[in-house]
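Box 3.1 A note on notation
Throughout this textbook, protein chains are presented in two layers. The first layer is the amino acid sequence; the second is a token string describing backbone geometry. Keep the layers aligned when reading.
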Amino acid sequence: MSYPQFEELKVWQKAKDLATDTHNAFACCPFESVRDQMQRSSIYLMNNIAKGVERKGSNEFDKFLYVARGYCGELKSTLYLAQELECISGEEREQLNESCITVSKMLAGLIKKIHEPRDSNNDTASHSSAASKPEEKAETK
């Protein structure tokens, strides 16, 4: 299976946006441990997508995508604590939570796509569609 550059993946772009939003939302959080955890998790999320693509093998790619999904869960969980500690508002928590859910669904769709059997009669078409469409399916969920 042929993979595009990670920068071309919509899921990586969304994860990068989530990392930027997370850094901005927690820039003034007085609790260093919460701030650092949120910022690191958001960076690890986008970086695991990039690492998976760069490894080029579908078995390794999906492992990194599963790790990235784990970071989505970690971010969502810590958002509740951050709200209770008044690092962020309920509205900020909800916005970041929705972004986490979107990225997680996109990752699930991409994982599913890379496990679909390839069309042996039309290898070229399956390579190009796998490279360009996995995130589009996940976005519609």
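The longest helix spans residues 58-84. The chain has one domain: 6-139.
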